[in-house]
User: Fold this.
Amino acid sequence: MRRLFLVLFLLLTAVTARAHDFWIEPSSFRPAVGSLVSASLRVGQDFVGDPVPRSAQRIEKFIVRDGANERPLVGQENRDPAGLLRLDTPGVAIIGYRSRPEALELPAQKFEEYLRSEGLESIIALRAKRGESAKPDKEIFSRCAKAILFTGGGGGGARHDKEVAQPLGFRFEIVPESNPYTAGGAIAFRLLFDGKPLRDALVTAIRQDDPGKPMRARSDRAGRVTLDLRARGVWLVKSVQIIPAPPSSGAEWESLWASVTFER
Amino acid sequence: MGEPVGIRHLRALIVAAAVAFPALAHEIGTTQVTARFNRDHTYEIDVVTGPASLLSKIEHRRVAPGPDVRARLLAHARELREAAEIRFGGVRVEPEINVIPSAARDPLRSGASEPSLRLGMTPESATIRFHGDIPRNAGAFTWRWRLTYSAYALAIGPRTEWLDGDGVSSPFPLSRELLPPSRLDVIRQYLVLGFTHIVPYGLDHILFVLGIFLLTTKLKPVLAQVTAFTIAHSITLGLTIYGVVSVSPRFVEPMIALSIAYVAIENVLTSELKPWRVAIVFAFGLLHGMGFAGVLKEMGLPRSEFLTALITFNVGVETGQLAVIATAFLAVAYWHSMKPWYRQRFVVPASVAIACTGLFWTVQRIVS
Assistant:
């Protein structure tokens, strides 16, 4: 009994200590052509999250790209699921959600914990060097979430790989180099920041059925990271970046949260 | 399509929340929390949220939406209780818990072009209700809910506060009438209630007590009867309030009337304290106690001071009875009880009048 409480306590404190991930959860990752799909936005951690209803105020871009088409997702304000789409073109469809930045303040200790958990030790070191380790965080944060759906069919595998590897153009983006629905065990991802490869960024992959065992790796010089994602199921691959915030924002730091979800 | 004023307010609040520092650390989710404080000194806190995501968080794995949500959530009552930090003046309370599943709410149903859509995702919601008694001398209320990642609104009456997933609400002071009464308040209130239940409202009890008194002016017999009556009605008052015995008022009320007639009739026939008289008064006391309990049940007893209220009500009743006897003694018996006409001109006619009233009530109460 006491041990159970301890586990629960640790679990709950773990919940509170970290900043939270953001991802897109479609009603189906492998929909039939012509079917309607809903896209739910989720905030949470360890791939367990709360639904986030649609808020026009916060959406910079909420689109789906299938084939050459890119169009916005429709949806009802203040409702979950946040977006609805109909897939008419067979093949790969990529849903993208880019939020407007929002303000956030954190006490120094919480900020440093979150920097550590997201592999942003360079910022911790920078703060220490400036003698600002005890300074509370004043930041703006924004989301760059993607979900890759696959209907099957629609031309050859090479074409799908090419479509998947084509960035949506978000400021921070995780781009698979091959179609995760057809590729073998390991998949290479490129991390792009302002369209350029981002090196040394921590990337975490979590499988929904086994969220307790995340996989972590850092991107190389070419901004590339290869992850062994052979286990079947729904995957979340995510990364967080922090840069100095633009002076006009009134914040000191700007964080960007990139994620991509798909099913293997 | 016009939208309710409430939604417009909500939107205005969301806009306000988005531009201001300090700000919410997370997106606003679908969870909503409402706290209510009731006049019976209880609180209710409703957490309306998606049961599937809630279960996923508790079980730390993905849980698909499905039926039997209530049972599945109640199986985690301990975790839910653990996750809800309800405090009054910083002191945490242990709430009762209930789960009220709500009908699936399909966002596509209202004004949807294709109502037959099945998206494999039911945007259902459930209400987890935490409830309990507001503690005595409760300080300001604070709330924390540890099972949401998103930001949510906490509504307390007209006040709405936006909380980050893990945030603690700002203290909400309770107005005085919502707090349970102090022990002194309860004593005062139930003493008065017990007394007024005899004088002036309990004419039947007054007549019964007068019946006891009219038998004789000797102290001992009056004392013996009053004591028997008091013990008896205290027993049944307590037993009935605690639900140990339950006798229908359709039986109790006519019997009380009959008891009045009986003592009065006996007063006409004798002025001696017969051995059975005390036993009969005791038996009638049992009936009167059930009558008192009926009143007390209607009034309600404060849960925080149940026994205090029960005892002081009984003391109040007792004081009322003694007041009746004292008044009768001072008004008539003290001056005239030694006079030869006291029994013939006062006790007998008064007893006959009481007996007639008692019999009339007996018939009336049976008929109605």
